[in-house]
Amino acid sequence: MASTGTAVVSLHAEVEVRRGTFTLRAALACAAGETLAVLGPNGAGKSTLLRALAGLEPATGPVRVGGRDVSALPPRLRGAGVVFQDHRLFPHLSARDNVAFGPRSQGGRRRDARAEADALLLRLGLGDLGARRPRELSGGQAQRVALARALAGRPTYLLLDEPLSALDTEIRAEVRGFLRTTVDGYDGPCLLVTHDAVEALTLADRILVLEGGGVVQEGTPTQVARHPATPYVARLVGLNFYRGQLTGGRLTVDSGGEIACATGDLSGRALATIRPSAVTLFADRPHGTSARNLWPGRIAVVEVAGERVRVEVASTPPVVAEVTAAALAELRVRPGDEVWAAVKATDVDVRT
Amino acid sequence: MPGRSLALPLLLAALALVSACGSSTSSTPASSTPPSSTPLHGSITVFAAASLTGSFTRLGKQFEAAHPGTTVTFSFGASSTLAQQINQGAPADVFASAAPVNMQQVISDGGIATSTDFASNTAELAVAPGKASTITSLADLAKAGVRFATCQPQVPCGAVATKVLAHAHLTVQPVTQGLDVKTTLAYVTNGQVDAALVYVTDVKAAGSSVVGVPIPAAENASTEYPIGVVSASKNLDLARAFDQYVLSGSGRSVLAAAGFSSP
Amino acid sequence: MRRGRLPVVLAVPAALGLLFLLLPLLGLLARAPWHGLPHLLGDSTVLQALRLSLICASSATALSVLLGVPLAWVIARLRFPGRRVLRALVTLPLVLPPVVGGVALLYAFGRKGVFGPALSALHVDLSFTTAGVVAAETFVAMPFLVVSVEGALSSSDLRFEEAAATLGAGAWTTFRRVTVPLIGPSVGAGAVLTFARALGEFGATITFAGNLPGTTQTLPLATYIALETDPRSAIALALLLLAVSIAVLLLLRERWLRPGPQS
User: Has this prediction a pTM greater than 0.90?
Assistant: First the structure.
């Protein structure tokens, strides 16, 4: 899927969009061959950002594609390949003609465009779908064809707007794999908008976290997962997250409770995260444990995910523990029962 | 009311006097209604050919003035349409047609017992003032670029027009066929066409808005106007009175003034 | 949910309404001269009127589509001051009495109309011509198409047009290859309604285009005129128009039932 003939470029943008009371202000950079995931809750402005980059939303600020500012150009001249959440395949055209639409609009002849479309569909393993109409395709197939359509137009940069959100969970993984392989083979910069952490973590080279119209964190998936900057991200990646006032090795959590940390003389406002796997559960108050954090609380939720079980404890502060199914069975506890959660001070990750 | 029963015969006598002195070509003596024991009252509807619009409206007003308390309403239109309507049961009391054939339609249907001819009309070319120099005779209708109208062949004036054009050996086509003679005349006065084949009475009624081009007697055709009382009329007395009034001297003088000839 | 049971209070008016709509049609069918029908319909004037009607209605429909679709697009998609007023004006002929439309056309494009001289200079003649019939029919019928298409465009998806834009298609290409196919069904339905309305037009046609067999005497006109002289012929013509109307209705339903290209 190399964009032969087109220079391989990077994307740099500083976008500002004002819509009613909502303002979006974001700066981003995406290198050629890189996939940047824009992650955020609903209403954060992720789709707005993507649409602004595509030229579908009025915005101010430069959008530099390979050094050339395209922000003043209409969508059809920007060279962006867009995949929408609802595939938007033209209902009256076959899959082949849909894929051929881009090349034809750019001046190609019908026969050549169709041949190109067939070749691309074949390469992507969608060869037998060419003659079908969109209503004859499943959601997953349609979205795959939509990606093929975007690529057929030889875009200089790819924009994927929540491509998997509209799909059933069972096929999401499948299409995700297809996306990964296909995008890996694309030379240009690729921006993926999603609210699904797994999508972001598995597909992206770098992540941009957007909340309330602004960038709150940027980094590699590992960095973002290990050191989430906001409760949203922490929740997303499954970490326990606390904000509070730190003095002399104790963090007084804003929402209640205290956490003992190994921070020495550090003081001031701080963020603390605790990995669920670092939390140990006891049915009765343990004696002889070195953990400096011992919190009693009722079990609120038990979520089984195969061998691992996530247990939400309504202690002060509240904490999510991850234990093995066997360990939970040994405890003989059920939702509503009282347990004790123990966390070592050294397992509390603090950042000021 | 005593006053009224005296006034009627006096008025009629006066009218008889006037008509005798008038320039009438009529030889039919003015028939006067013998004084009736009950005065005329109520209202009637008169269906009359479109070409009678001006004259009959005047007659109606005169009649109402002569018989206070009576109302005469008119429905003017193409004689063929009116005949159809009467046959379908329209509430007409008197029917005045522009051609015997339409009166015959109603008589055959049983709607009217007898009719009397009261006027006659011939055709004339009504030309728009701006075209008066171009169109000075019937033959000019064949000139290139001339647009003229006639009545539709199904109505009396259309039948007359067909005859006139045939007599003149002209195979010209109008651009439109008006539904009745007044509509046809309107095409000229509105400037939609250059000329129209209508009646002499219409040309007269149109005054200065058209220029009349007379048609030589040899080429012209005429049509007789019969009038009859509808048997099913709800006010036979008044209907008959109006019928007589049209046939009377006063009726003839109004018609003559409008340009009608005697039957 | 239980099926509604018909309350008497509703049943009576409903039945009356149904009878009111059905009885005239039944009357027509009952009085139809079934035996003489083939002969009546085979008459040359009838065939002439039918041919003229079909040609004019088809032309009016084609013209309405050509002009109406872009107009609908402008109203539905462009934002400009006075858009709502324009929309109301465009749908005005829908509620305007047809004869008023005819008068308006006359004083706009007739010889004495505002644009009459301009049209004459261009050797374009509209009044009393077949072109005039098409103009009158388009005037009264085009709003049907505009309203139908405008509705589809307003509710139709900008989503697809956005997608087309990102794929490099310009406004015209998008319109041609995406918008038009998507609104196809509503254009079709609108065209059918337009055709039906154009076919049945009487008031504007007779006022603006006139009445001349073969040139401007469409089926409705011929029916009206036949009523005066030959009622049997009139009924035959009425049946013919009824048959065409039913065919149009069936065509319309077929469009509704056929699945369109919906995502």
Answer: no
